Amino acid sequence: MDHFNEQPSHPHTPERDEITTAFRDVFALDAGKRVLFWMLEQCAVYRDAYSGELTNATNYILGRQGAGRTLIAKLDSIDPTMYPKLLLAIADFKEAEKVAAKRRADSAEGEDYDVDA
C-alpha cells in the first residue's frame, strides 16, 4: 500500500498509525525538518513548472511537483499546522545560518588585520 495515499475508508489502521508516528518523530527533530524541506525542494514545489514550451521537461517537473504536493498533503493530514511550521522553522534555520556566516566573515576579516603576524 502506498503510505502517502491511504484510503479514507480505513482511517485508523496500524500501518497508517505507524507512518503518522514516524512523520511526527521526523518532524520533532531539526534535522528531520531540514530533510523534509530538502525533499520538497527536490520536488520543485517552489518553482514554476513551465519550461518555456509544453515539453517533456515541463511534464517531468509537473510530476515532481505532484510528489511534493502529496508530501504536503500527508503533512496536512497528520496536523494542518505541520507544513506552515516547517516553513517557519526553515526560515529560522536560514536566518541563523546567515548570522553564523556573517560572524565567520567578521572573524576572518579581523584576522586579516592581525599586526602580530
Sequence of secondary-structure elements: HHHH
The count of strands amounts to 0
Structural category: mainly alpha
Assembly category: single chain
Distance between the termini: 65 Å
Mean pLDDT: 87
Q: Helicity level, as a percent range? A: 55-70%
Coarse shape: flat
How many strands, which pairing sense, and closed or not: the largest β-sheet?
Answer: none
Rg of Cα set: 20 Å
Task: Output the number of helix runs.
Answer: 4
| Poorly predicted residue ranges | none
What fraction strand?
under 5%
Protein described:
This protein is mainly alpha-helical and 117 residues long. Helix content is 69%, strand content 0%. The termini are far apart. 6% of the residues are buried. The model has no long low-confidence stretch (mean pLDDT 87).
Summarize the structure.
With 117 residues, the chain is mostly helical. The chain has helices at 14-27, 30-42, 56-78, 82-112.
Quick tags:
mainly alpha; flat; 117 residues
Topology diagram in text:
Blueprint: H1 14-27, H2 30-42, H3 56-78, H4 82-112
Helix pairs in contact: 2-3, 2-4
